């Protein structure tokens, strides 16, 4: 066994577990000791093996990316309770709480109050933004509690150097920092009130006019891009 690599040892351990033809396979951080590249390779390989064998698998992991890559259904646990259960898309796109929203992936959060709530749309006023938030559906808040949190993923917060021509869902800002991550860059934009927000910009073109450090920009988003969460 000592002559085997980390990935080979994981494969042997999995084969020994599956040799007994279990009805349920329990895995606890099975790839925690592997480096990132090998872990990514093993994730896809493990999913393929489990699907081929046809065994139900329950896996515990603290790696959100691993859970999103491997699972058909994810259960987010907090203090011994299930905060939300659903497909990776459900968990990421429609979280039911701020806890789940912050646990999976990066997110921009804005505190605000619902000032108009109709069946087809709602308006939210946030002190952290210059313009009101327009949501393309009603949010059904109670009469007593109109305070909410608006969650917006960085890939859905867009950057432009030209002022948007619509009334809602944008704000002025200044590029505070840029992190180049290969396939995309993370733009950290400081809003007039001092809040920092993140925007993911794909590095599809090697050249072209793009904002840089200190540039004045505008951030904006579509009316169905965010999620309204109860505070």
UniProtKB/TrEMBL annotation:
Protein name as catalogued: Spermidine/putrescine ABC transporter ATPase subunit
Species: Pseudomonas amygdali pv. eriobotryae
Top-level lineage group: Bacteria
Pfam families: ABC_tran (PF00005), TOBE_2 (PF08402)
InterPro entries: ABC_SmlMolc_Importer, ABC_transporter-like_ATP-bd, Mo/tungstate-bd_C_term_dom, P-loop_NTPase, Transp-assoc_OB_typ2
Gene Ontology terms, MF aspect: ATP binding; ATP hydrolysis activity; transmembrane transporter activity
GO terms under cellular component: ATP-binding cassette (ABC) transporter complex
Domain Transport-associated OB type per the UniProt entry, residue ranges: 151-229
């Amino acid at each position: 066994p000592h002559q085997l690599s980390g990935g080979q040892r994981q494969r042997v351990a999995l084969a020994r577990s599956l040799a007994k033809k279990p009805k349920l396979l329990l895995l606890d951080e099975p790839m925690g000791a592997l480096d990132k590249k090998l872990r990514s390779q093993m994730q896809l390989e493990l999913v393929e093996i489990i699907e081929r064998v046809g065994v139900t698998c329950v896996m515990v992991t603290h790696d959100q990316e691993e859970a999103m890559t491997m699972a058909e259904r994810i259960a987010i646990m907090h203090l011994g309770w299930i905060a939300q259960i659903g497909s990776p898309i459900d968990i990421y796109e429609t979280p039911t709480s701020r806890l789940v929203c912050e646990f999976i992936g990066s997110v921009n959060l804005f505190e605000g109050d619902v000032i108009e709530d109709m069946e087809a749309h709602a308006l939210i006023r946030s002190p952290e933004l210059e313009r009101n938030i327009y949501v393309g559906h009603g949010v059904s808040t109670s009469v007593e509690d109109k305070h909410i949190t608006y969650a917006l993923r960085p890939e859905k917060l867009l950057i432009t150097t030209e002022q948007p021509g619509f009334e809602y869902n944008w704000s002025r800002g200044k590029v505070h920092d840029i992190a180049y991550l290969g396939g995309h860059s993370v733009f950290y934009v400081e809003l007039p009130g001092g809040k920092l927000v993140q925007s993911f910009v794909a590095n599809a073109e090697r050249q072209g006019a793009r904002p840089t450090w200190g540039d004045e920009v505008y951030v904006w988003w579509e009316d169905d891009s965010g999620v309204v969460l109860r505070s």
